[in-house]
Design a protein that fits this description.
Blueprint: E1 2-18, E2 21-35, E3 38-44, H1 54-62, H2 70-76, H3 81-98, H4 102-105, E4 118-120, H5 125-134, E5 140-144, H6 151-160, E6 165-169, H7 176-188, E7 191-195, E8 215-217, E9 236-239, H8 241-244, H9 247-259, E10 263-266, H10 273-282, E11 288-289, E12 307-308, E13 311-312
Parallel strand pairs: 4-5, 5-6, 6-7, 7-8, 8-9, 9-10, 10-11
Antiparallel strand pairs: 1-2, 2-3, 12-13
Length: 321
């Protein structure tokens, strides 16, 4: 077995801004695992918020011994981007070797299209209203927020897309007082879910203040080990492959979270169709799906995922799985 990793850059269609900063491109790592002439592919997006860089994640991947199994990865790499790319590449390799699709290997039904959110990046109210109007026919919009001046942005987006379903993502940008002030207005404006309103590690107030709409843990939830600390504070968990360390743990986290009464959101970093492909299996039956990364790119992989009025479709075998 040969494992290789390479950096690839995908320019974004427009500047993408969240409360932590802006970007004009998606920098990803592509893992290729070749065994007996068959190659499996995986992609990850190292994330500075979790102390990951392209270099550190590459070093983790290159440190692996030859011929690791997916189960052995749990002892070789922590949850995070490196393990994700390798885990997903191993799933792809196993499917190709078996002449099956990944969902058949996993004992899952064939995935159906899932409606995905489309993300509006953080900007001035006028520009966010224009973004919302441009995308008003999309069934679900996700608004990036995370400042103390978000009320005008919320009102502007609702004016731009009066009929759209809306969820918001504060990216840890509010404190308890700001969230308590905004929450009634989120309800008034028809917002269905708020992601990570308070910083991870400083979110205990969510168990003490009123939660008039569902609150979703993103930065506070990585893998199954995160769940005990979420009790009483969150209603949903946002499962992302780059946080769980791959599809194997993501499927286990979904099952465990549901058994504990949490709703499921399936999200993504800004990456290509190869990064989203495994998550389409995970998204089946989720309360909210946010796999719009490829829609934000100016260019994508060959054989990209299909997005249409029915949602995001499962990958072709030529892409992954």
């Amino acid at each position: 077995m040969n494992i290789s990793v390479s950096k690839e850059v995908f320019p974004l269609a427009e500047i993408f801004t969240i409360s932590r900063g802006s970007r004009t491109q998606a920098q990803v790592l592509t893992v290729r695992i070749n065994k007996n002439g068959v190659t499996g592919h995986g992609e990850c997006v190292p994330y500075a918020r979790y102390n990951e860089t392209l270099e550190s994640v590459t070093e983790q991947i290159e440190s692996l011994p030859n011929n690791p199994s997916r189960m052995e990865l749990f002892n070789l790499l922590p949850a995070g981007a490196a393990r994700n790319a390798v885990d997903c590449a191993l799933w792809d390799l196993e499917a190709k070797q078996a002449g099956m699709r990944v969902w058949e290997l996993a004992g899952l039904p064939a995935p159906q299209p899932e409606i995905t959110a489309y993300t509006l990046s953080l900007d001035t109210p006028d520009k966010m209203q224009a973004q919302a109007a441009k995308n008003a026919t999309r069934p679900l919009l996700k608004i990036k927020l995370g400042t103390a001046e978000d009320m005008d942005r919320l009102e502007a987006v609702r004016r731009g897309a009066p009929g759209a379903r809306i969820i918001v993502d504060a990216n840890e940008g509010w404190d308890a007082d700001v969230y308590a002030d905004l929450a009634p207005h989120l309800v008034r404006l028809g917002v269905e879910l708020v992601e990570q309103p308070l910083p991870a590690g400083s979110d205990d107030m969510l168990a003490e203040i009123e939660r008039p709409l569902p609150v979703c843990a993103d930065e506070s939830c990585h893998d199954r080990a995160s769940l005990p600390a979420l009790k009483g504070k969150y209603d949903y968990v946002n499962i992302k492959l780059d946080k769980t360390g791959g599809l194997t743990e993501a499927l286990a986290l979904k099952t465990e979270a549901q058994s504990q009464g949490y709703g499921i959101m399936v999200g993504c970093m800004v990456g290509s169709s190869l990064a989203m492909a495994p998550a389409t299996l995970l998204a089946q039956g989720a309360g909210f799906t946010d796999l719009d990364g490829p829609l934000l790119l100016a260019t994508d992989r060959d054989n990209p995922l299909t997005f249409d009025k029915h949602g995001v479709h499962a990958p072709s075998a030529a892409l992954w799985g």
